[in-house]
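In response to a reviewer's request, we include the raw inputs and outputs for one of the modeled complexes. The two entities were modeled together in a single run.
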Amino acid sequence: MLDFIISKYNYWIYIILMMIGFYAMIGKKNLVKKIIGINIFQTAIILFFISTAAKRGGTLPIIEHGHGHGAHAIEAASYVNPLPHVLMLTAIVVMVSTLGVALAIVIAIYRRYNTLEEDEILEKRKWSRNLLF
Amino acid sequence: MRVLALLTVILTGIILLYGTQDMPNWGDPNSPASMHVSPRYLERTLEETATPNAVTSVLADYRGYDTLGETTVIFTAGVSCILILRARRRQKKENA
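The model returned the following structure tokens for the whole complex.
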């Protein structure tokens, strides 16, 4: 039982982090808090992927004695898996781009409605639609 | 509404926690993710790309087109930020 907890607890931490972000996304009314929730969610996913790269006894995926030591056998088991690191590098870039666009949209919404609360925005939209028709 | 959100979150969490039973152990060198394709990158990175850093060689050499697409993503995000923020300003000027 203890063995099971020790070998799986990292996933539980990411799931709890993901739940916090998910709750902020769907439970909060403030748009900036929603964006923070999206970021926490994405961070949890990134940590999850990075943890799949870990190998016990493995070091950074930089080949030791790389240049000027001639050809030598490279043991893949002594380096951590580089692919999740690469993919999460890409994911971080996408995360930053979506964060930028989301904040720009929030600024536009604030300029138009003078509020960031979702229910107040919906109320104002309903009101202006009744005014139009 | 808040209760519904909390319920959804807890339900998702329970499903995911249930799913972790089948995940590989933390730090397991024989996990599926590190068995199939990644040893090849580690073993051949020096001879194929002359880069000791495997992350760099995968990012900029093996997956160079992916990185090119990534720069397109950043460019699109930057352009859309500019467009969103400028369109509002012009509209305000017309109203005034």
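As requested, we also summarize the result in words. The helical segments of chain A are 2-27, 31-53, 82-113, 118-132. DSSP finds four helices and no strands in chain A.
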